Amino acid sequence: MDRLQREKLKWKCRRGLLELDIVLERYLARHPDDHALNPLLDLPDNDLWDIVAGRSENYQPHLKDVVARLRAV
Amino acid sequence: MALSVRKFDAIVVGAGGSGMRAALELARANLKVAVLSKVFPTRSHTVAAQGGIAAPLANSTEDNWHWHMYDTVKGSDYLGDQDAIEYMCRRAIEVVVELEHMGMPFDRLESGKIYQRPFGGHTQDYGSPKMAMRSCAAADRTGHAMLHTLYQQNVRANTQFFVEWMALDLIRDPQDGAVIGVTALEMETGEVSILQAKATVFATGGSGRIFAASTNAFINTGDGLGMAARAGIPLEDMEFFQFHPTGIQGAGILITEGVRGEGGYLLNKNGERFMERYAPNAKDLASRDVVSRAMTTEIKEGRGCGPDADHLLLKLDHLGPEVINHRLPGIREIAIRFANADPVREPIPVVPTAHYQMGGIPTKYTGQVVVPEGATSESILPSFYAVGECACVSVHGANRLGTNSLLDLVVFGKAAGEQVIKDIRSLPSPQRNLPKDAGEASRARLARLDAASSGERVADVGNDLRRTMQAHCGIFRFPEDLARGIEKVKEIAARAQRLFIQDKSKVFNTARVEALELDNLVETAMATIVSAEARKESRGAQSRADFPERDDKNWMRHTLWYKEANRLAYKPVHLKPMTVEAFQPKARTY
Hints:
heterodimer; A: mainly alpha; B: alpha/beta; 4-stranded antiparallel β-sheet; globular
């Protein structure tokens, strides 16, 4: 992953909910080049937070691994 | 090389609830509108609002705008402008019904009407013990529903969004000070350009990130406040910042009051349930300000917990896993994730946490920015408007009531839109001429950053600023802390002039954006602590150890802070409403 993609990914992690800001900041510190995060970042903040908090399984099946990693940070 | 210039009828800076409501009004009037946002519009901080939006629809209990007005005036600790408050409460029903018609999914009664619930500080019959059911909500995601509804409506009305654009500085006409646009950084290219308009509306939100403990998202860096301050425009009542007693130490995530309602309580480092000393009857259920002051006192007197003695513990393991899992859903998950503490076994580290900024850019109820000029304290600054948390209308005065902030966004977003349309249609000439040096200030800021080969790290300076504000200008304020804090913030401001970033790329450089945000945080923090030090009373959210009482004789007035030389001025509170009798100041007890 090049610098530009990494920077764009980082900025997409700036959210309206503080909970997500913190979780995503931690995530990027561990997985700075994880492209797979992108489709999740297109979700509305509250929907994404419900997924991270384990209250929702409403995401596409191929994102299972990245969701698991996200829930683990 | 000259900067490129794009021209619009109106620019709205910020795409949260108030900015999008203003933009919608303008786009529907077929004006050419540009909305600038650092992040995608539906990721604005408005999504975090859970409680609801206040409107006296009287769907469940008797209610009317005059009762709502009384509650808001009293809640403001009588610092709110009563004309603006009357205006907001009288337009509440209209704006909520409009949102419903736009498709906002409010919770409903069986009758099909909007369901309303009670909320702290909202009463029937001028403060009677009976609560008003006034809050209209969309489950626990009212802000989210509002933001998505307004975004869809704007797309339909052809509002032009400039996403991942950061406004940098205001451009003013040297002749009369009128605002004629902004400079802005397009992140994608790293280029700065000029966006010129007949009207510029700021809707940039709050500045909660000036505190170490804050519930605000990372984007809330007071950008509009910084831009206004640098352009010589004063900031009003910045000392008034609402805090919540129990945010998770180091993270800021709120632990709801419900935890103490269920029997959770606070401990100091000696394991003492200290609230018994401060509020023998209500104990941990005393009002927010009482609990927050007690917590600050414990920390200040050396009874804080942890290696830095900087927080307290919220104990709930005695409630048992049954109560914690069933009556406090989500709390356990949040505590484990953000405090690394499982509340079933161990207490949660908490600290009073900054939540909402009552002050901002001084405006009247039309959204027009007003500044002192000659003998008048409120002269309209042509072509400049501010709405939402970045503005000080002032409807929240010294303290905001829950559910009034979402109402503020839509009422004044709409009002500013209406005023802009009126003003543009009465303009004699289309666009003013740009001053020769337009954009120079922004270019100089960026050039300094690009040229620096060494200097201060953005993260270090930002962290020092947040820690200083938290320690010196938090929920409970002490004179010697405030005075020392001002000196420290001045030192930090000097360091912020020498920032160094490693990455010198132009294209999509987030380090550059964070450095530019820090400039705005510094201005806002300075305004807050200087205003707080000067106000020698306790009122609403300003609580001073040395002046514990409200002092209407000397301090029933709004603060105006100017960046230049940290100058302060004051102006009277509007005690006269538009059409009704004034509510006279009384002690604020609940």
